[in-house]
Design goal:
Chain lengths: ~150, ~150, ~150
């Protein structure tokens, strides 16, 4: 099954790949390894998912925000490679969670992105990960996720 | 001398490699480069080393927490590669220190992990590094460290 | 035009590559990919650029601090490779901005480093990036930036 078919089965529609806010690019292919810029959390309607875990956002909403970052990563990967079928392996996700000092469930938030990758790519979606709580994120979003992806040759 | 012998000489016992809390994997080999998930600080007895530098944890305890993250990284590398002798180079450590806003000694904390790598691997343990202070970490731990490791072929 | 000539045209003088504060190295070449340690913000006179965005530092000063991190990255790349002409591509910048909880313009701060790379390397300077707000940074600096660089062979 193609990854596009898998996305359809999962009911996931890829958004337009977001343009970088600034003077950088969404993805760089370095010797067959794709480095994707940190993607911030956008809702399906294109609005920003803002908030801080442990302050004004619940865990479930945080996990949804992380999933939406993952969906934007997919959109960026597809834009960079032409087809998601060229993904050999999701290698690493770096998950940054906008966190109040006493919020300690960053892994459960990050699972929103991690479970997406596994659902979409199966074994090839099983990745290494770091998940940390940061003081602030661009435009006040709840989650930012960057990625390293191995490209099939 | 094998790395296992070196560990014995240093009096370091590797713990059971911690299972990921969630839907990701401890390490991914991408074209001979091993990406290892962020490891959080566990004490020798398996309990979490919790705390925030500049608030309720002293510098020395923070460095010990970073060293313990490093030891868990070694356990993960060994579990992934079968033997630590397959490490060609510790390439990069990403060190995240749970920090109060006025704590600025992240490098000294991170040295706990960096000095370990050099003690264990010698020249091959000398790595690039970033060390930053974060607002919060999973389960309230003091330190999280991820790594990139080149594999001998 | 050589990159050194380009730097001269831009009026940029590279500082002495800063020695690591601790037990790690400024850069590691891993199979033709250079991983550079996080560089903190130093002013032209060698003093630290300290501060926290949203608290005691304005946006423009933050962007300058990020540019200075970028200039120190260039100094480290040159020290590691002998010549900046060996840079094939700036692959990724990781930008950590010392941020008060309500500061959300990390991308504009990070642009100080990103625009520098594009000015110096042109197309080869267009990189992937993540930019996040952290609670604290080493020695109280305003910005820390690490980098991944592909080396020409």
């Amino acid at each position: 099954m193609s990854i596009d078919a898998k996305l359809a089965e999962l009911g996931i529609t890829l958004p337009q790949a977001a343009a970088p806010v600034a003077s950088y690019v969404p993805a760089v292919d370095c010797n067959g390894v794709l480095h994707i810029s940190g993607q911030i959390s956008f809702a399906e309607d294109g609005s920003l998912i803002k908030g801080r875990l442990g302050e004004d956002m619940e865990l479930e909403a945080g996990a949804t925000a992380a999933k939406r970052c993952g969906i934007m990563l997919l959109a960026q990967i597809k834009a960079a490679l032409g087809s998601l079928d060229r993904v050999e392996r999701i290698v690493k996700l770096g998950v940054f969670v906008n966190s109040a000092p006493d919020f300690t469930d960053q892994p459960k938030v990050a699972n929103g992105a991690s479970e997406l990758m596994q659902a979409v790519f199966g074994e090839a979606g099983r990745h290494a990960r770091s998940a940390v709580g940061v003081a602030a994120l661009p435009l006040g979003v709840a989650v930012e996720v960057d990625a390293i992806v191995a490209i099939r040759r």
